[in-house]
């Protein structure tokens, strides 16, 4: 593999004796992997039902190596949100972030959703995913819907958000734009991009994003900074700049273990950097990553996850068709729904709001998604149930269910948006595959009118 000369010289200087094994790793093929969505299925159960061969990733819990020749992205389990296709080392920021489930988490550079879906998999219930690109944020929404998460998606510049959300979040993920050196083996096109941009072009942007994250971080909160580059200009030096600017920040220790490395030798005497880690392809079966976990001193304010009563409307104020749809839910699920608050927008879409919405909503923020889309009210006074709502449910959450085997022609027909000749009680039907929800259909007793999201149909 032909690599840029300045890249090779830089790595030789940074790695010393490890440079030879590092360069040899580029003779090996790039690996493919996925991460199980443990909010829907346990890793043990996934191993039992996996449709193709898998091999556990030893350094990423719930991650598995797979073959690129198998049809993972076409399988119905993918459309049920049971896993997310992700490079092995890119799984680590979400896995290494300390969480107990009650935090409000901001993923500041979120698209296409690898870190955000990782947080959902770990049980985060108050998640805001932001990306500055609107087109990328649309792909982010779909991936979050597949994961079954009830979260908000915004499309804003981090500097603007820092003005609107000062000291607002317990955890912030910053997967910063970078030169992408760690992905050269996987994506040869990044080499061309690298050659066109001068060294250090990203550092100013990285520092700016981190400064915005600092301003949005609550006392006692943590920032996970990550890049997919090996450059110390974009890694160690960016972290040092942040720590030198704020006395109330310190680096938390991440366990390097046998698969990872600490900071480069040139920084070994810099005590502030002792906790960050590098991921190198010659030490683990993955590509390249850098991680640094930063903590802000102080104690967290109380009540930061409470949803204001003025946010949205309560269940009793929902239009009758919406309440009728929810009437098909199990008693437990319906009781939970009655405790939630909802947003009904001008286009008739109904959203189930996350608890944090009342605290983060501000006029002027570009929200691409505000929680889980329950459905859309039609001009005729009915409601069309939305696929994202189905993907947030369990099989037993609805009273009318059709369970299609994942290897059946009917399952693929459903994902293609076709009408199914399947008898079921009249009304709304939750379509599942092997017990995992895919979407909705409407039964007339003989046929199922397909309600699968039109933009998602199987191709």
Walkthrough of the structure:
- The strands form four sheets. Strands 5, 6, 7, 8, 9, 10, 11, 12 and 16 form a nine-stranded mixed sheet that branches. A five-stranded antiparallel sheet has the order 13-14-15-17-18. A four-stranded antiparallel sheet has the order 2-3-1-4, with helices on one face.
- It is globular, with a radius of gyration of 23 Å.
- 27% of the residues lie in helices and 23% in strands.
- It is built from 16 helices and 22 strands.
- By secondary structure, the protein is of the alpha+beta class.
- The model has no long low-confidence stretch (mean pLDDT 93).
- It has helices at 5-15, 19-24, 43-49, 76-79, 92-96, 114-121, 134-147, 158-164, 189-196, 203-216, 236-245, 320-326, 331-338, 357-360, 387-391, 409-415, and strands at residues 32-36, 55-56, 63-66, 83-85, 104-107, 126-130, 152-154, 169-175, 217-227, 249-252, 277-279, 289-296, 313-314, 341-344, 349-352, 367-370, 372-377, 383-385, 401-404, 427-433, 436-443, 448-450.
- It has two domains: 5-30 and 86-296, Vaccinia Virus protein VP39 (Rossmann fold), CATH 3.40.50; 313-352 and 362-456, Nuclear Transport Factor 2, Chain: A (Roll).
């Amino acid at each position: 593999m032909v690599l840029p000369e300045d890249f090779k010289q830089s790595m030789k200087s940074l790695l010393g004796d490890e440079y030879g094994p590092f360069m040899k790793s580029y003779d090996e093929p790039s690996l493919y992997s996925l991460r199980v969505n443990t909010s829907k299925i346990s890793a043990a159960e996934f191993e039992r039902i996996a449709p193709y061969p898998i091999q556990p990733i030893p350094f990423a819990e719930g991650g598995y190596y797979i073959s690129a020749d198998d049809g993972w992205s076409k399988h119905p389990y993918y459309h049920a949100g049971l896993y997310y296709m992700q490079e092995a080392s890119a799984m680590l920021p979400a896995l290494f972030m300390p969480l107990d489930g009650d935090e409000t988490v901001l993923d500041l550079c979120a698209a296409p959703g690898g870190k955000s879906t990782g947080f959902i998999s770990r049980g985060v219930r108050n998640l805001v995913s932001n990306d500055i690109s609107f087109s990328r944020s649309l792909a982010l929404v779909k991936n979050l819907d597949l994961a079954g998460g009830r979260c908000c998606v915004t499309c804003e510049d981090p500097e603007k958000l820092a003005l609107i959300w000062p000291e607002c979040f317990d955890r912030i993920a910053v997967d910063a734009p970078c030169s992408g050196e760690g992905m050269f083996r996987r994506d040869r096109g990044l080499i061309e991009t690298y050659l066109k941009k001068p060294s250090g072009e990203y550092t100013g942007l990285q520092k700016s994003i981190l400064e915005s994250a600092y301003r949005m971080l609550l006392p006692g909160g943590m920032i996970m900074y990550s890049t997919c580059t090996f450059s110390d200009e974009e890694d160690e030096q960016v972290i040092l700049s942040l720590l030198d600017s704020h006395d109330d920040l310190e680096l938390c220790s991440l366990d390097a273990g046998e698969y990872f490395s600490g900071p480069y030798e040139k920084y070994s005497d810099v005590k502030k950097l002792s906790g960050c880690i590098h991921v190198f392809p010659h030490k683990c079966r993955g590509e390249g990553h850098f991680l640094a976990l930063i903590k802000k001193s102080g104690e967290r304010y109380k009540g930061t996850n409470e949803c204001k009563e003025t946010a949205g409307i309560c269940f009793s104020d929902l239009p009758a068709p919406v309440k009728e749809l929810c009437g098909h839910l199990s008693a437990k699920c319906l009781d939970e729904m009655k405790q939630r608050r909802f947003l009904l927008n001008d286009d008739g879409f109904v959203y189930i709001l996350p608890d944090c919405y009342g605290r983060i909503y501000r006029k002027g923020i570009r929200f691409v998604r505000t929680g889980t889309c329950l459905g859309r009210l039609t001009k005729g006074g009915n409601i069309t149930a939305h696929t994202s709502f189905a993907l947030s449910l369990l099989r037993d959450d609805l009273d009318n269910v059709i369970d299609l085997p994942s290897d059946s022609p009917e399952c693929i027909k459903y994902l293609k948006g076709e009408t199914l000749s399947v008898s079921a009680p009249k009304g709304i039907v939750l379509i599942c595959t092997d017990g995992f929800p895919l979407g909705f259909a409407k039964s007339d007793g003989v046929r199922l009118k397909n309600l699968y999201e039109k933009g998602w149909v199987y191709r």
